[in-house]
Specification:
There is one protein chain. This protein is an alpha+beta fold and about 180 residues long. The protein folds into 2 domains: about 80 residues; about 100 residues, Alpha-Beta Plaits. It is about 60% helix and about 25% strand. The protein contains 3 helices and 5 strands, in the order ααβββαββ. Strands 1, 2, 3, 4 and 5 form a 5-stranded antiparallel beta sheet that branches. A hairpin with a 7-residue loop joins strand 4 and strand 5. Helix 2 crosses helix 3. The radius of gyration is 42 Å and the shape is rod-shaped.
Length: about 180
């Protein structure tokens, strides 16, 4: 019976420390669970932050592309029919070709741009000069699209059967982007 008393005395004697240790262990367990939950939340927030950062980069790229597109639109939209005719005459002069006629056609509306076609009749002494005219047209800062090209060799009129010059009928167009 002495042993029972000793055990009950021991329990009574160490009751507070055991209870304190139990409370501390329970608090540690609760703190660990809270920490684990917070760690998961932090990982989810980091993943979300990475996603948002990627979205911001993409949005920044879109803004940059939009600004670039607007600058191209402003560049392409600085067109006037008379200015185009003047440029075509300058191109012909640089390439030693002679423009016989320039006939502006009516504007053609598309969903994103308006096309302004021209019919040109050009005289050139040889294919080299005609090719030089087309090359100068392609190098110009304005965009010109060649839609149709017809080349006719004119007879020299003598008995040699050769040709004296080339006549080219070219249909070109330039574009104006819509906003």
């Amino acid at each position: 019976m002495n042993e029972k008393i000793e055990i009950s005395e021991l329990i009574h004697k160490y009751k507070k420390p055991i209870l304190n240790i139990s409370v501390i262990l329970a608090a540690l367990l609760i703190a660990f669970r809270i920490y684990s939950g917070q760690e998961k939340d932090i990982a989810a927030l980091k993943k979300q932050q990475e996603g948002e950062t990627e979205k911001n980069l993409i949005a920044g790229n879109i803004v940059g592309l939009r600004e670039k597109l607007n600058s191209y639109k402003q560049f392409l939209n600085k067109k006037d029919v008379l200015e185009c005719v003047r440029k075509l005459n300058n191109i012909a002069a640089r390439s030693s070709a002679n423009i016989i006629s320039i006939v502006p056609q009516g504007a053609k509306e598309n969903s994103y741009y308006t096309s302004y076609p021209f019919n040109l009749t050009i005289l050139a002494k040889n294919y080299h000069i005609l090719a030089k005219f087309i090359n100068e047209l392609e190098k110009d800062s304005d965009i010109y699209l060649i839609n149709l090209l017809t080349i006719i060799a004119r007879d020299s009129g003598d008995l040699s059967g050769g040709y004296s010059e080339l006549e080219a009928e070219i249909q070109i167009s330039t574009i104006l982007y819509k906003d």
